[in-house]
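Weekly modeling sync, notes
Attendees: AB, CL, MP (scribe)

Item 1: holo prediction request
CL wants a bound-state model with glutamine before deciding which constructs to order. AB pointed out that an apo prediction alone won't tell us much about the pocket. Agreed to run with the ligand included and paste results into these notes for async review.

Input as submitted:
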Amino acid sequence: LDHIAKADVQVHAFLELTADAAMQAAQRVDNAIAAGTFDQLGPLAGVPVAFKDNMNLVGTHTTCSSHMLENYVSPYTATCVQRIIDAGGLPLGKLNMDEFAFGSTTESSAFGPTHNPWDLGRVPGGSSGGSAAAVAAGMACVTLGSDTGGSIRQPASFCGIVGVKPTYGMVSRYGVVAFGSSLDQVGPFARSVEDAAAAMDALCGHDPLDCTSQDVKADFRAACQQGIEGMRVGIVRSFMDAKGLSPEVRERVNEAAAKLEAAGATIVEVDLPHIDAAISAYYVLGPCEAFSNLARFDSVRYGYCEEGHKDLGGQYEASRAHGFGEEAKRRIMLGSYLLSAGVYEQYYYPAQQVRTLITQDYRNAYGQCDVILAPTAPATAFKFGEIADPATMYLSDVFTISINIAGNGGMSVPCGLGAQSGMPIGVQLIAPQFKDENMFRAAMALEA
Ligand code: GLN
């Protein structure tokens, strides 16, 4: 807590601290040590943890970094948060993010951006930038983020830590404010692969409160000990040849492939023929789902309400005009347009067809390999304001988005610093659906 008080003045990862709850949880761990029952506590006993601010924790604000929810206090706790606390985590508080998770830099937070601890003049990535920066700056050992198109993996890469987006359905979304319900998945950030595995062991498992939650549970800590002898690692040629991929990132991915080969894996080339359409499909499907989900923030049921208007229409309009920031408005307008009669048939429907094709592409590729190795992001962390145009920003998700579209597991593992930029670079491991252990096994070999 002392370290946060000092370091977070510059980094600005935290939006709210729950120091009392953390101290009480620490006391329970102390008591267990004194009573000789520490071994009965969960895999995160005594580990300082914190949560992205789109996750409910009873009694705390859950703002989604938006003025719309600035004064909203959680009446209940999200399943993912509860599981981390039940596993023994010491809850430190809530973390900054792009507003409603729209973005790749944390610059769209209504409460000011988070800074990259490696270079305060650069972004930590986003949308879970606060969650990544908190771990990178040593303010928490495990944090949770959410990933709809890359929001865990890209900030993990930018901040030099491990970030995991599990297969869709592995972690409950109950109590997490929805962005794109068919794409959103919660996952951990940590400094090491094994720490992330311990968090995954606590997080995964069926939740009757989320109808997409699956009854699958893997032992990720055990998977970390398995090695990769005989594992087939796929490389996607079109990813490696992508125009926007910076040479220093390509270099690190090639190095990672060599490292996996040296540890007993075989490298195979795989093809994802429809992958070029992933960004377009995502920026149709994502805004459509966001538009539907954000309709609940109407100033009546939730959040900011501007009173004094003649009629309800005026109240809705003024509250939403002032409650939402620019990027949230852009997504809402895009979604409402794309779902309107006549336009739906031209965009939403074909985007769903593309989604099926991309999902099949991955299934076919996994006939030849057990895990795919790819870049996480095209380049290292950018400077504040460097990318001002939203369409260019959207392109930076090119290596992460298709994994959410197909529902696979993906994780980013730090692989050293860029030769030119001197900033951290992560490589991505992509697993077949519900075979997330595979990416942990490969991640361990990369970390070694
Ligand atoms: N950058 C992507 C977007 O803005 C992904 C965000 C996310 O995963 N939440 O939609």
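Recorded for review: Residues 101-104, 127, 147-151, 179, 286, 397 surround glutamine (CB under 6 Å).
Action items: CL to compare against the apo run; MP to circulate these notes.
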